[in-house]
Amino acid sequence: MADGTKPGAAVTPPPPARKRRRWTPALFLLPALVLLGALVVYPIGYSMVRSLLDKAGESFVGVDNYATLFTDDSIRTALANNLIWVVLAPTVATALGLVFAVLTERVRWGTAFKLVVFMPMAISMLASGIIFRLVYEQDPDRGVANAAWVAVHDTFNESSAFPKAHPGPESPLEKSEGGSFTTREPVRAGEPVLLPLVGVAPDKMPEDAAPAAEAKADPGQVTGTAWQDFTRGGGGTPSVVDPKELGYPGIRVEAVKDGRVVAETRAGPDGTFALPAEADGAQLRFPADNFREPYNGVDWLGPTLVTLSVISAYVWMWAGFAMVLIAAGLAGVPRELLEAARIDGANEWQVFRRITVPMLAPVLGVVLVTLMINVLKIFDLIVVIAPGSSRDDANVLAVQLYDSAFGDRDLGVASAIAVLLFLLVVPMMVTNVRRLRKEARR
């Protein structure tokens, strides 16, 4: 033969190019696989083994650490709060993201609105926690939430200017039912009545308070003076209107006969007041609402509301994330379907409910599951926002893991919590991966 090969001799074919390159991808993947094993696989395996050992890690305790998860009060509170987080936070954030994405499609300034809503995502959890810790301050002069809440409340229920006022030892008033103060004896027309009170700090007196004056006698009226029977700097005579003492402007005075209010009025800036002739022979009463404590708003970070308050901070941060993803999905919805539905007579709510939402179901599912995985790891907001007095009431598994590991030094229970979190996250991750693969095959 031309090539010198003997007839009938076996010819060895060259190795296929595919076999020669078999290890090439593995070499490129090796660094990533090493990092994955060192940073993910090994810690998971070690946590599973460590969760079966005692606090010191010296003896095998089996599932005792896992039993502790369901018997310890702090951990059970964390489990309950995690359930609230998983159900409420992703649902609200996804719902708001859907609403924002749909509505911003129809407004001219939609892009600017999306930018504003998405901006909290650029802020770290720590910074957001500090912001909302200030927002939820109990003092209305510092906390934005209570400042707004108190403003609305006081619009419909006026606060008292004299919450600490009460009669002095020589006052003709005595405490009566419901926190009000009533004169011991009936009053008479033409005989001015002096009703001294004490207990209001000079710097807390209303701005319109004027120097107190004695009321003039009027045979057809019951007149009197309600004033602060205290002279700043000392001096003054008890139960006597002194020049430096201030009246109680706006304080409400009632005339009561046989348990029934027959007349009422409010005092002027100098504390003087006048009641009609019907008040003759009645007892005068300062109603309890004159002395009601000022409304200081809601205890947002108290044991009852702390979890919901922190969830609100989370939703503020992540609603923009949900909006951006849903808006991207909404851009892929065929407009022909929407227009056809409108032509067939469907209103906007029907179009939204029967076409938009079903078409966005895959995107909504991805957003919802992603946020569920995210809230299972929530840590920063709880630590920063919840005060020490209600920290236990806001507890979640990630915070409890930290407390068990670095506070109680119980690495067995901490590892069990870590394994529980891992087991809770795995089904959600599997669901997300399957959904993504299903979408990729379409």
Automatic annotation (TrEMBL):
<keyword id="KW-0813">Transport</keyword>
<feature type="transmembrane region" description="Helical">
    <location>
        <begin position="355"/>
        <end position="376"/>
    </location>
</feature>
<feature type="transmembrane region" description="Helical">
    <location>
        <begin position="411"/>
        <end position="433"/>
    </location>
</feature>
<dbReference type="GO" id="GO:0005886">
    <property type="term" value="C:plasma membrane"/>
</dbReference>
<feature type="transmembrane region" description="Helical">
    <location>
        <begin position="26"/>
        <end position="45"/>
    </location>
</feature>
<keyword id="KW-0472">Membrane</keyword>
<dbReference type="Pfam" id="PF00528">
    <property type="entry name" value="BPD_transp_1"/>
</dbReference>
<feature type="domain" description="ABC transmembrane type-1">
    <location>
        <begin position="79"/>
        <end position="432"/>
    </location>
</feature>
<dbReference type="InterPro" id="IPR035906">
    <property type="entry name" value="MetI-like_sf"/>
</dbReference>
<feature type="transmembrane region" description="Helical">
    <location>
        <begin position="83"/>
        <end position="103"/>
    </location>
</feature>
<feature type="transmembrane region" description="Helical">
    <location>
        <begin position="115"/>
        <end position="136"/>
    </location>
</feature>
<feature type="transmembrane region" description="Helical">
    <location>
        <begin position="313"/>
        <end position="334"/>
    </location>
</feature>
<comment type="similarity">
    <text>Belongs to the binding-protein-dependent transport system permease family.</text>
</comment>
<feature type="region of interest" description="Disordered">
    <location>
        <begin position="205"/>
        <end position="244"/>
    </location>
</feature>
<dbReference type="GO" id="GO:0055085">
    <property type="term" value="P:transmembrane transport"/>
</dbReference>
<keyword id="KW-1133">Transmembrane helix</keyword>
<feature type="region of interest" description="Disordered">
    <location>
        <begin position="160"/>
        <end position="184"/>
    </location>
</feature>
<protein>
    <submittedName>
        <fullName>ABC transporter permease</fullName>
    </submittedName>
</protein>
<keyword id="KW-0812">Transmembrane</keyword>
<dbReference type="InterPro" id="IPR000515">
    <property type="entry name" value="MetI-like"/>
</dbReference>
<dbReference type="InterPro" id="IPR050809">
    <property type="entry name" value="UgpAE/MalFG_permease"/>
</dbReference>
<keyword id="KW-1003">Cell membrane</keyword>
